[in-house]
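Working notes for the structural subgroup meeting. M.R. asked for a predicted model of this chain before we commit to crystallization trials. I am recording the input and output together here so anyone reviewing the notebook later can reproduce the run.

Input as submitted:
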Amino acid sequence: MQKKQCALKILAVASLLAGVHSTSFAVDSASFELGTGNKSQLARVAAQWDWDSKWWQSNGTHIGGYWDLSLAEFRQDQYQNIPGQHKNLTDIGFTPVFRFQADDKKGLYAEAGIGVHLMSHLYDNNGRRFSTAFEFGDHLGAGYVFNNGLDLGVRLQHFSNGGIKHPNSGANFAVARAAYHF
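Returned structure, recorded in token form:
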């Protein structure tokens, strides 16, 4: 229960801080991601809206961020713990992401986000079961933004319902990400 409350508080604060600083409804970038973990894979497309904020600006760097709206497809390869039994599920997610980056938003960056996800079915793969279709998704990532707007990165992604209901075994994924800033 404490994890759930902490996650909800973080999400609420992030939403309040970031939401008032978007200057436009136009999409700033789009991304494609591939991930693997727990004998399952994910493919995800997303759109991002940059925040017009530069917190703790110092020495040519700052903390900024963006909203991330995603649509993903998961392929479970050991559905209900049966080897070779497959099941797909679809996920829609919304995540505020904080990013430590250069002031010009080019070069190396590190990021972290925690958001909400709604899955079309309950995840049940390789001994990991979710008891709710509503999940929190958090990630830590790093990457590089090139001068032409190409953004290549990696993420460690975790899904869990934050203790809302049991079982709550969670699942982890290693994710490769490519994005393009318009």
